[in-house]
Design brief:
By secondary structure, the protein is α+β, with helices and mostly antiparallel strands. The protein is 29% helix and 27% strand.
């Protein structure tokens, strides 16, 4: 494929976006830059969500990033754009901007607060207007290395607390050590193997991980309580119930839950896109395709970002990825 937009334009736009810090909940400046770069006026603008254009296909991208790690400002070197958010997902946003500036027909959706719990997402406000009710497909430009990533895993965060009885650490037999109870209670989790689940010929892997642990108040006190934070990734419903059954000796509290999304490979627009992008993989992570799926809108992940570099201190995106993604979407949206 020959890119219709020179790589320096795509790279320069990506770099310009990188150089505007936009950690989640601090995105006002980057939203202003998107307004400046996009042609025309938005059809929806509440300060957190911008929607432009018309048509059956929605291109969607978030403008926020994880916290900086000394990787702002960015730079262009060695055939790549480097810096915070380069892959996740200012590269995708840059492709969207340049497609819009070239007059490629689509709806262009930019939004904030994606790198935080889904309960903080501003997208429900847009969905409530019904302005996307007639959308036939959403392409979310999350980093996929220019492969199609179908569906996504659900994401459940929970805290499990184990209780005991405090005592002097010199006489532990007079109490019940909650940390010891936690260690014993977590044995079923330690023995739990990942479980593969096939949907539409794609294999997703359901997993549960202990990600943080705490307990105790002093070195000479047998602790009366101890807790562990769990992160579960799933495609089937009922993960909360599975965790309660797995760890019956603990008290489980769900902190946050984001739904999974089906692959949507039967969508006719996805079938056309697959002619341009034959490589299809399951999305072994959560993305906003789940929010579109909840609204009855088929969605798929496709973007230029390099998955191996997302959220890293050396985050980067190859310029060739930008060119390829731009040209694929240009052909997809205009043919």
């Amino acid at each position: 494929m020959t890119s219709a937009v020179p790589a320096p334009d795509l790279a320069a736009t990506t770099l310009r976006l990188i150089d505007v810090p936009s950690e989640s909940r601090s995105e006002a400046e980057i939203v202003g830059l998107v307004r400046e770069l996009m042609p025309g006026s938005p059809t929806y603008d509440d300060g957190e969500v911008l929607l432009y254009g018309e048509g059956p296909i929605v291109l969607a991208g978030h403008v926020d990033t994880v916290p900086a790690q000394g990787n702002v400002p960015g730079r262009i070197a060695d055939g790549a754009v480097h810096g915070l958010g380069a892959s996740d997902m200012k590269a995708g946003v840059a492709v969207m901007v340049e497609l819009a500036r070239a007059g490629v027909p689509a709806r262009y959706l930019f939004f904030t607060r994606e790198e935080v719990p889904v309960s903080d997402s501003p997208l429900p406000g847009l969905f409530a207007t019904g302005m996307l009710a007639d959308a036939e497909l959403a392409v979310v430009l999350e980093p996929t290395d220019n492969d199609l990533h179908a569906g996504c895993l659900g994401n459940l965060q929970a805290r499990v607390t184990f209780h005991g009885e405090s005592a002097h650490s010199a006489r532990p037999w007079t109490g019940v050590n909650a940390i010891h109870e936690l260690v014993r209670g977590l044995q079923p989790l330690v023995a739990l193997a990942p479980e593969d689940v096939e949907l539409d010929g794609l294999v997703f892997r359901e997993v549960v991980s202990a990600v943080r642990v705490g307990g105790g108040i002093a070195a000479n006190v047998v602790p009366a309580s101890a807790w562990v934070d769990l992160n579960a990734r799933f495609v089937r419903p009922g993960m909360e119930e599975q965790l309660r059954a797995l760890l019956p000796d603990g008290e489980l509290e769900v902190i946050a839950e984001s739904p999974s999304a089906p692959p949507a490979l039967g969508n006719p627009h996805v079938a056309r896109l697959r002619e341009l992008v034959p490589s299809v993989k399951p999305k072994q992570a959560w993305t906003p395709v789940a929010q579109f799926a909840e609204q009855g809108i088929d969605a798929i992940n496709y973007g230029p970002g390099a998955t191996a570099y997302a959220h890293r201190v050396d985050e980067q995106v190859p310029i060739a990825n930008l060119e390829q993604c731009y040209e694929v979407l240009r052909v997809f949206l205009t043919d």
